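Predict structure. Input: Dolichyl-phosphate-mannose-protein mannosyltransferase, 655 residues.
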Amino acid sequence: MVSAPTLRRAEYVPIAVCLLAAAGLSSLYALDLLGRPTLLRAGFTLVGAVVALALFFASRGGFPDASSHVPASVVTKVVLALAGGAVVATALLGSRLLPFAVVLPLGLLLVALQIRAEPSVPAVVTQLSALFLAGRLGKYLTTGFYFGGTDTFAHVAAVDTLLSARYTTAIPHGYDLYPVFHFLVGAVTHLTRLGAYDALALTGVLLFTLVVPLAYLLGASVFGSTRLGLTAALSVVVLEFFSYHALYFYPQALASVLLLVAIYVNSRVLDAGDERTYRRLSVFVLLLVGTMVVTHHLTYLLFAGVAAAALPVVLARPYLLPSVSGGRWPTLRYRWLFPGVVGGALLLAYWSYSPSLIVVGIVELSLGVLFDVATVPPAQLYTYGVTLPGDSVERAVQWLLTPTGVYAAGLGALLLLAAYELLDHLGRYRRGFTLAVTGLGLSGLLLPLPIPVPQLERLKFVVTLVAVFPLAVGLRRALAVDGRYVAVALLLVASLGGATAFTVLTADDVAGVYTDERREQVSMTDAEFRAVGTTAGFVETYGSDDVATDKVTNRAFETADYNATRVLRARPDGLRTEADFVVVRDRWTDHLVALGLSLRSSEQNVFTLSEERFAATEARSNVVYATDSVRVYHSSDGFRGLYGQNGTTAANATG
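Output follows.
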C-alpha cells in the first residue's frame, strides 16, 4: 500500500489531466494548428478525462459487500435468451442494428451488475461469450460475402486451391510457406462441407469467442484475481479489434489468438510448482511457438515491438516495486525469456530457408523512404459527378455522437481510470504490473489519431492483445464505485459495449451508422459475388491479359483463379488505361473505389462516381458483357477520360 502523501498526490492527477486536456485543445485552437472540426472531434479526450475523473472520486477501489438478489443461473438464461433472440431478429429483419443496439447494452449491464456483487465465474463467462458470439453471428448473417480489407478473397481462393490440389505449394501469395491458417480453414471446410468463405468466417467467429474464456484465465493468472479475470474477459467484448477480426479472419488473426494462448501458458510456466509441470508446459509452449512461426511471420515482428516496449517496464519494476517475501519477477529470468528467444531463433532459421517477400518489401520500402531514395505518393481522391460534403463543425459534432465517438470517449475514460488506479494502489498490482503498464502505454494507439497511417491496423491489433490488461484494471475500478454513483459506471460499460458493435470499424458495412461519408466497399451480396465470378470467366476467355479494373473486383477475381494485369488509373479528367477491356460494377456509385493492388503499386488513387455519370457513360460505351451488377466495356484504343464527362456531349468511351 502506498503512503498517505502519495494518495493525496494521486487525487490531483485526474484534475490535472482534465485541465491539461482543456488547455491543450484551447491552445491548438488559439494557434490555429488544427481546424475547428478536427478540434471538436479531439474533444473526445476531454470527455473521457471528465468521465474518468468522476469515476475516480466516486470509487476508492473497494467493492460493496453485496450479493445478487437474482440467482446467476437465472441471469444466464436471460442473457442467453436475449443473445439468441437478437440473432433470430437479425435473420428476420435483415438488419442487426436495432436488435443489437438493444440487446448488447442490456446484456452488458447485467454482466456488470454481477461483477460488482459476488460473481459466478462460469455464469459471467458464459454470458460474455454468448454476447460476443451473437454480435459476430449478426454481422455474418447481414453481410453476404464480407471481405473487409480484401484479403479474404485471397484466402478463400487459397483454401479452394489447397483442397483441390492437396499440396501447399499451390497456394499463392507466398502463403505456401506459412500455411497453418489454410490448413485449419481447409480442415473445417472438408469436415463440414461448407463453402470456403463460410468455413473461414465461422472458424474466426468461434475462435474469437473462445478468446473470452481465455482472457478470463489469462487475467486471473496474471493478476491473481478472479474479478480481474472477469473484467479481462469483459475487455474482449468491448474492444473493437477483437469484434472486427472475428469475421475479417486472416492469418494474423489466427496468430494473435495463438499469441494469447502462448502468454497464458507462459504465465503458468512461471507459476509451475514442480519440475514435471514446468517441463510439460515448456514443451507445449515451444511447440506452440513453432506453429506460430509458420502461421504468420509478420505477427512476430509486430509483437517484437510490444516486447521492446515492455523491456523498460521490466527493468524499472524492481525500483518501483521492491521485492518482498513472496514477490516474483524481480529481474529478467530465463523462465520469462525462453519462449521468445527460442521463437525468434526458429523464426530466423525459417526465414533463412524461406525468405518472406512481404517482409522484404516492407523493409525495402521503409528504408527507401527513410533514406530518400524512394517515395510513396499520397493517394488522391477524384470525384466524378459527385459533390462530397465538406468538413464542418456540424459534422464534427455528429461524429462525437456516433458509436465511434462514444467508443473513443469511453475507451479513453477507462484507460485513464486504469492509470489513476495504478497510481493510487500500485502495490495491489505487483502481479501483472509489467503487462498492465506496457498495455497502458501502448493503448493510446487504439484511440483515433488526427492523421491516417497506412497499415496501422495491423499494429493496433497486436496492441489490443496487451490492452486487455489495463482495460481490465480500469473496468475493475469503474465497477467498484459507491452505490450512489453506480449508474454512471453501468452507463459507461453499457454504452461502450453497445457502441463497440457499431463503430466505423466493426460496422463498416452498415450505411449511415458512422456519418454520410462514402467508404470503400467491404462486402458483396451472394448474387454480386457470383456475377463477378462469371465475369472473370468471360474476360479470361476473351480479354486474357488486356483487362483492367479496380482493386476490389480484381481481388474477387482471385477466387475464380484469374487476375486483371493491366493498370487502371484515376486522373482529374477521368479513368485511364491502355487495356482494351474495362470491368466496371454498379456498386462503384455507392462507395469510394480504390485502385492498385498493394502499397507498392504505382497507382494508389481513389475515385467516387455518381449514378448519372455511370449511366451516361454506359449509354455511349461498347458493352460486350453485362450482368445485373457487372459490365465489361471494350475499346480497341484503350480508355481515356472514362466518367470524366457528364454525357451531355456526344463522345465515345475513349473520351
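The chain has a mean pLDDT of 86.
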